[in-house]
């Protein structure tokens, strides 16, 4: 039995460990003729332990739901024994003193005998493996104990592997540029704050923070500098934030601060006002930011909440609306959400109306960023979206994509973009000089999850009659989290038509290698965040080298995004990455300029 269980743990992937533990408990229970076999895990601070896995013989009542968050003190002297690496062996519970902690815990459960062994790693207590006998008392031999100790060692090793895997998964909860909490983690923290506020009846607050005039800075100084500003602002905010509060980056230049355990509503307003002033001053005082531009200011919107009477998304929207109340006044201020901000909600309704008009009036335009293969041959382009607004001029995606995603309008917009891209491919494929060009099109998570997504793409292919091998659909790692098998099925259906798939921004989220090898991918795209510091940071070099080797091992093409200078290109070539795009070659171009770029490129190649 021990050999069989050991082999099962040795072969199990981290994602399978919980199942293997359940199977091991059943095997142990049957072998030892026990009534219950179970596993407890201790919290990181060892203050509490919970029953996480359990097997019960027929007719024996489960205790799993009852034995949660038990204080370590409830285990009495066993806890001290386990910390010392010693098992707890009781052949007859009725022989225990009735007032002992052990008897008080075991007798109400009807347990007659039990054997419990600690799960320890590097002298640290992780948990406990136990056997209960309810129907009779039982003597535990040295062989019983020795066998269980071997199994406990296997379980302990498996749990450690699982912890490593889960730590890797947690990387998906932090923003790759700033290292702060990302949207997913922020949403969870806000929800937890609501529950805590329900219990404590203390107010909490959300502060929606936007860097003033960041677009101008980003456009004039480049993305590298823009990302550095984001990182420095994040550090400045975190420096003054009270312990236990959370700061994270939502998207673009927008940050969110969650502050908890505030006083009553009137005092809470004063506390939030003081905190906002500290945050603004910290950014103003940052010498590193001053070296980039002399004055860096923040627009901040705040909303207070008590309990969970509002949805999390509503709270974020309220803080966002309050922040936008500051912007027209020149920024560098704080505003609180109140009923009068319904005007801001009307603006969102206006944006929805304008987006519908943009779809109907064909106001969306495709821009093309060249993608090249060594030694500098243009193989195609990534399609990027711009909105030719009738009143506000040409708008980048940061002006409307997030709202389009939230409202669901991204589905119709994405379909229009894909159709335009395929029509352009159809035109090029009729021209010998451009027939081999490829186009990469970003697919949003919401668009991909539509039930009829495969049918819509098939319809566009039939309508445009293109060679679909020239079309690459770019997906993000976040799409793989939910319903992975369904994702693979859709990809496989479209792959049958010749469509290829790229995994965009690779390395910024978390993809299990077990999942990665099942995906019908053609290309991995290295996120530009790793390329920015490629020449200065050995860790970034190691990550990029690992991604390239991973792609080569899996037979995937690897393309680097955000190549902005010759040094980065040289380093990538030395690491074995031969596909790339970025400002070093060209910014995203409208169609006419892209075709002119192609013509000049072809002329240069002919001269060579």
Automatic annotation (TrEMBL):
Annotated organism of origin: Alishewanella jeotgali KCTC 22429
GO molecular function, one term: cyclic-guanylate-specific phosphodiesterase activity
PANTHER family assigned: CYCLIC DI-GMP PHOSPHODIESTERASE PDEF, SIGNALING PROTEIN YKOW
InterPro entries recorded: Cyclic-di-GMP_PDE-like, EAL_dom, EAL_sf, GAF, GAF-like_dom_sf, GGDEF_dom, Nucleotide_cyclase, Rev_trsase/Diguanyl_cyclase
Boundaries of every GGDEF domain copy: 202-339
Sequence ranges assigned to domain EAL in this UniProt record: 348-602
Name of the protein in its database record: PAS/PAC sensor-containing diguanylate cyclase/phosphodiesterase
UniProt cross-references to SMART domains, sorted A to Z: EAL (SM00052), GAF (SM00065), GGDEF (SM00267)
């Amino acid at each position: 039995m021990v050999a069989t269980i050991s082999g099962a743990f040795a072969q199990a992937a981290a994602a399978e460990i919980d199942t293997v533990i359940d199977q091991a408990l059943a095997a142990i229970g049957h072998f030892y003729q026990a009534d219950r076999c179970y596993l407890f895990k201790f919290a990181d601070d060892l203050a509490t332990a919970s029953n996480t896995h359990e097997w019960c013989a027929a007719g024996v009542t489960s205790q799993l739901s009852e034995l949660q968050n038990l204080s370590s003190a409830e285990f009495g002297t066993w806890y001290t024994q386990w910390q010392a690496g010693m098992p707890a062996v009781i052949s007859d519970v009725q022989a225990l003193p009735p007032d002992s902690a052990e008897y008080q815990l075991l007798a109400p459960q009807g347990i007659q005998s039990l054997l419990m062994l600690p799960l320890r790693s590097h002298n640290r207590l992780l948990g406990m493996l136990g056997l209960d006998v309810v129907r009779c008392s039982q003597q535990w031999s040295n062989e019983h104990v020795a066998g269980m100790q071997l199994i406990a060692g296997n379980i302990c090793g498996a749990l450690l592997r699982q912890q490593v895997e889960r730590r890797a998964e947690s990387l998906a909860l932090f923003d790759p540029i700033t290292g702060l909490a990302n949207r997913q983690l922020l949403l969870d923290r806000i929800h937890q704050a609501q529950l805590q506020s329900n219990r404590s009846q203390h107010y909490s607050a959300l502060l929606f923070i936007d860097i003033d005039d960041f677009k101008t800075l980003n456009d004039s100084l480049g993305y590298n500098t823009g990302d550095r500003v984001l990182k420095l602002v994040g550090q400045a905010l975190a420096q003054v934030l009270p312990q236990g509060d959370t700061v994270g980056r939502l998207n673009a230049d927008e940050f969110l601060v969650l502050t908890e355990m505030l006083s009553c509503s009137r005092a809470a307003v004063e506390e939030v006002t003081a905190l906002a002033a500290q945050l603004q001053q910290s950014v103003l005082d940052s010498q590193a930011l001053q070296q980039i531009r002399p004055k860096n200011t923040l627009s901040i919107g705040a909303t207070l909440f008590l309990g969970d009477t509002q949805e999390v998304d509503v709270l974020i929207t309220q803080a966002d609306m309050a922040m936008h109340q500051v912007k027209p006044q020149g920024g560098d201020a704080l505003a609180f959400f109140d009923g009068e901000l319904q005007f801001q909600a009307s603006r969102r309704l206006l944006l929805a109306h304008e987006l519908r008009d943009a779809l109907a009036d064909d106001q969306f335009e495709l821009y093309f960023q060249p993608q090249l293969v060594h030694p500098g041959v243009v193989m195609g382009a990534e399609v990027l979206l711009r909105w030719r607004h009738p009143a506000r001029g040409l708008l980048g995606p940061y002006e409307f994509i997030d709202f389009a995603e939230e409202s669901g309008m991204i589905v119709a917009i994405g379909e229009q973009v894909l159709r335009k891209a395929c029509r352009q491919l159809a035109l090029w494929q009729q021209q010998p000089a451009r027939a081999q060009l490829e186009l990469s099109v970003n697919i949003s998570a919401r668009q991909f999850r539509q039930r009829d997504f495969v049918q819509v793409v098939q319809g566009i292919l039939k309508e445009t009659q293109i060679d679909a091998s020239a079309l690459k659909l770019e997906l993000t790692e976040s799409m793989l989290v939910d319903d992975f098998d369904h994702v693979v099925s859709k990809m496989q259906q479209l792959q049958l038509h010749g469509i290829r798939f790229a995994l965009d921004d690779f390395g910024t989220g978390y993809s299990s290698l077990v999942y990665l090898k099942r995906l019908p991918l053609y290309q991995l795209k290295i996120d530009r965040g790793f390329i920015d510091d490629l020449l200065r940071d050995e860790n970034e070099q190691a990550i990029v080298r690992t991604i390239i080797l991973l792609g080569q091992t899996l037979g995937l093409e690897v393309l680097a995004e955000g190549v902005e200078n010759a040094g980065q290109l040289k380093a990538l070539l030395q690491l074995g990455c031969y596909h790339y795009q970025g400002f070093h070659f060209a910014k995203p171009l409208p169609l006419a300029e892209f075709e002119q770029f192609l013509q000049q490129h072809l002329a240069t190649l002919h001269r060579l």
